[in-house]
Amino acid sequence: MLAPHAELPDLGLEDIAVDSDPPWRSSTVPADVVDTLSELDLPIPTDVHWQALSDLQRFVLIKLTRRGHKNANLQAALDEFGLNEDGIA
User: Fold this and answer.
1) What local confidence, expressed as pLDDT, does residue 87 receive?
2) Domain of life of the organism in this record (predicted)?
3) Residue 18: pLDDT band by 50, 70, 90 thresholds?
4) Least packed by Cβ within 10 Å: which of 9, 33, 39, 58?
5) For the purposes of burial, counting CB atoms within 10 Å of the CB of 83, is it exposed (0-12), middle (13-18) or buried (19 or more)?
6) Please, are residues 83 and 49 in contact by the beta-carbon 8 Å criterion?
7) Distance (Å, rounded) from C-alpha 43 to C-alpha 89?
8) How far is 53 from 83, CA to CA, in rounded Å?
9) Dist CA 49 CA 63 (whole Å)
C-alpha cells in the first residue's frame, strides 16, 4: 500500500481516528437504522434481535441504512439475517 507513495517521502502519513465505541456494538438498535427501516416500511428489529446479530451483520445494516444509500441490498440482508416479517415477533 505504501509502495506507490515511496517516491513522495514528504507526503507523510496521517493517523486515522478509530471509534472506540462503534454503533454496531451498541446493545440497542441505532436510531438511524430504525428511522430508515421505518421510512422504507421494513421490519424493525427489536433490541433482542439486534443483540443476536454478529458485529458484521450489525455493521452491514448500519451501512445499508445510511442516509443517501440506495438501500438496494437492504431487503436481501434483512432476509438473510432472519429479520424479515416472519422472523421478527
Assistant:
1) 60
2) Bacteria
3) confident
4) 9
5) buried
6) yes
7) 10
8) 10
9) 18
The secondary structure of 23-54 as a DSSP string is: GGG-SS--HHHHHHHHHTT-PPPPHHHHHHS-
How far is residue 40's CA from residue 82's CA, in Å, rounded to a whole number? 18
Residue among 89, 86, 85, 87 nearest 42 (CA): 85
Cβ 61 vs Cβ 41: under 8 Å: no
The residues spanned by each domain of the chain are 25-89
- Please enumerate in sequence order all residues whose Cβ is within 8 A of that of 62, keeping only pairs 6 or more positions apart, or say none: 23, 24, 30, 32, 33
SS3 20: coil
Amino acid at 84: N
Q: Is the model more confident about 72 or about 27?
A: 27
